[in-house]
Amino acid sequence: MGNIQKKLTRRSEGGKRPERGAPRRGRTPGAGADKRDRPRAPAPAGGGRGAGEPAAGASPGPAAPPPGSAAPMGPAALKSQGNELFQNGQFSEAALKYSAAIAQLDGSAADLSILYSNRAACYLKDGNCSGCIQDCNRALELHPFSIKPLLRRAMAYETVEQYQKAYVDYKTVLQIDCGIQLANDSINRITKILIALDGPNWREKLPPIPAVPTSTQVRAWRPAAETGACMNNSTFCVCSIDENVFKTLKEEGNQCVKDKNYKDALSKYSECLKINNKECAIYTNRALCYLKLGQFEEAKQDCEQALQMDHGNVKACYRRALAHKGLKVRKPSFSYVRVISEQITCFR
């Protein structure tokens, strides 16, 4: 009983229970100190955000770059990185660098042409011939008659077996610089392919070969009969861009004559004259073919052309007389023909 009475007495001592929100017993109003009696720091405005956080509704300022981040690279740096990747055989990665440089570059046609040409080289290495051709086209629009885009486009055309277009590009390269061995070798190879595919008249199916301005030519070709020799120095070299092709076609024509295949021989000699029309022997050899095929007027014209170069050429005189005979034209040269007819060979 005594304990129950004490509890009832305590409840009645203060009257009613303290209301909600009233300070607890034992704490002074405004107690803002911690256990060590140090005042607490006031809460930041804005509902408990940290000191570095913006208040609600505040417009965010420009974001500061993360520490240690590098500034964006320009076209020159991207191109340099692309070159290094290309040399290391990372062609896809190099193409991405060149693409980024192209996107940034503005205004310089020459530099942009180089970037397109470089990316074309990456595409060619990766087997993307259509991409290579497109980039070479862009490069050549910006810088016409640039050797590297022409060579790369020619190689891409050859890879996809567009031999006529490849031939035209290689020939254009050789008009600019006749000393590029890759182009010379490719011309020899593609010529044989085109003869096999399109026959003796394969040149008629070629697209037009553009004429290269003299100002663009580095080492130009001149016929040997006009120059007499090949001059070599640091700035200029006169040499035959088609010397190997000419020799090959002439030998093939001679072999066709031996095989009595005069039609093919005629085609071979005609190809030789398109390369070099200053060699007398080609006219006399072709005249023989015309005679064998009964084309006496054409044979006579070739013999006269040969005699303009060499007035005493025995073969030209003899074959012109045979052409006159076929045309039933009497000339005083027939007596001369009888004397020498057994002393000359068919061709050189």
UniProtKB/TrEMBL annotation:
InterPro entries: CiliaryAsmbly_MitoImport, TPR-like_helical_dom_sf, TPR_rpt. Residues 10-22 have a biased composition (Basic and acidic residues). The keyword Repeat applies. Pfam families: TPR_1 (PF00515). Residues 1-77 are annotated as: Disordered. The keyword Lipoprotein does not apply. Coiled coil: none annotated. Residues 52-61 have a biased composition (Low complexity). Keywords: Cytoplasm, Repeat, TPR repeat. It is found in: Cytoplasm. TPR repeats lie at residues 280-313. GO terms for cellular component: cytosol. PANTHER family: RNA (RNA) POLYMERASE II ASSOCIATED PROTEIN HOMOLOG, SPERM-ASSOCIATED ANTIGEN 1. This is Translocase of outer mitochondrial membrane 34.
